[in-house]
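Entry 14. Ran structure prediction on the chain below.
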Amino acid sequence: MKEAKEVIVKVAAPGDADALVKLLECVRLESDFITEDSQEQLTKSEMETFISSSQLHDNCLCLLVMLDDEAIAVLNVAGKQDYSVSHIGDIFLAVRKSYWGCGLGQLLLAEAIDWAEHSGVIRRLELTVQKRNQAALHIYQKHGFLLEGIKKRGARAQTGDFLDVCMMSKMIEGN
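Output, structure tokens:
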């Protein structure tokens, strides 16, 4: 009989830096849907600093889905510190390919929206997603994100082909 594995959703802590670095390395190799400049590969030390820094701000959140000691999905909400845009949270979401279709992205997105609604700070969530990533577009729309525009040639695939990128947002009403 196989031993059951425990799946946990948690707020990332500095001690999770190594697992998060490994997850992001793996996701980059498995999929070419990630095209964000801001998601360049960090070292373990840089990731520890990133996680520690995000914990200091009430408009930032980093959630991990852990399977035993392995990170299999991440959702990050990055808020800027400048007052004029501190109410905006920029979302980054990634799931290991072997767990696509298991509902982890939806679970993390629902948790992030609930957090934003109770944050007292976040009043807008926004993200970009490649237009060809229909599964992700469907999930975002299902959770109330609206298409604000399409950035033509907003990214480039490894093949050199230009890709259109959808800009989406969700307004958050506070509790």
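The chain has a mean pLDDT of 91. Will compare against last week's run tomorrow.
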